[in-house]
Amino acid sequence: MSARCHYCTHYSSAIIVASFLVRMEPFSHTFQALQGGFDIPERMFHSIGKEWESASRDNMGDVRELIPEFFYLPDFLLNSNHIQLGQATKRISVFTFGTAHVVNRGPKVKTI
Questions:
Q1: Of 34, 57, 64, 107, whose CB has the highest number of CB atoms within 10 Å?
Q2: Sequence-ordered list of residues with C-beta below 8 angstroms from that of 24, at least 6 positions apart, any chain
Q3: What InterPro entries does the record tag this protein with (predicted)?
Q4: CB 23 within 8 A of CB 77
Q5: Who contacts 39 (Cβ-Cβ below 8 Å, separation ≥6)?
Q6: In a domain, 86, yes or no
Q7: Closest to 46 measured CA to CA, from 9, 86, 106
Q8: How many Å apart are CA 107 and CA 10, to the nearest integer?
Q9: Continuous segment of H or E residues that includes residue 60
Q10: Range of 36's domain?
Q11: In angstroms, rounded to a whole number, what is the distance separating the alpha carbons of residues 81 and 29?
Q12: Range 53-62 burial, b when 16+ CB lie within 10 A, else e
């Protein structure tokens, strides 16, 4: 008998939230406490595009939700605390975020 539900996994949990916010305290410590340390660099959150591809095309079991910080706290993409997260084998640094330069632009304010 197949499961009578849309998804057989939870869409949000403490580890999912901490994995998105791992570059900010206290979430880096929360991630380490839940995971037993940092994950291997290839599995660390380093690209919104890669997360989108995973959830929408590549992995139908990936049902994570966007956390509210995506909409109001772009600083979570920065690594202001210089936490050493490693480097993936394809030379992708997970220390910084792929689109962190966008965060530094700030809002455009028009004065009258």
A1: 64
A2: 75, 76, 80, 81
A3: BEACH_dom (IPR000409), BEACH_dom_sf (IPR036372), BEACH_domain_protein (IPR051944)
A4: yes
A5: 19
A6: yes
A7: 86
A8: 35
A9: none
A10: 14-103
A11: 12
A12: eebeeeeeeb
**Residue 94: which pLDDT band, with cuts at 50, 70 and 90?**
low
- Both structure tokens of 98: 């792929």
Whether residue 8 is contained in a domain is answered as no
Alpha carbons 59 and 50: distance in angstroms, whole number:
11
Which one-letter DSSP state was computed for residue 71? Answer: H
Rounded to whole angstroms, the Cα distance separating 109 from 44 reads 34
User: 63 lies in a domain?
Assistant: yes
Q: How far is CA 109 from CA 28, 33, 72, 103, 106, in A?
A: 33, 41, 17, 15, 9
Please tell me whether the overall predicted TM-score, pTM, comes out greater than 0.70 for this model. Answer: no
How many structural domains does the chain have?
1
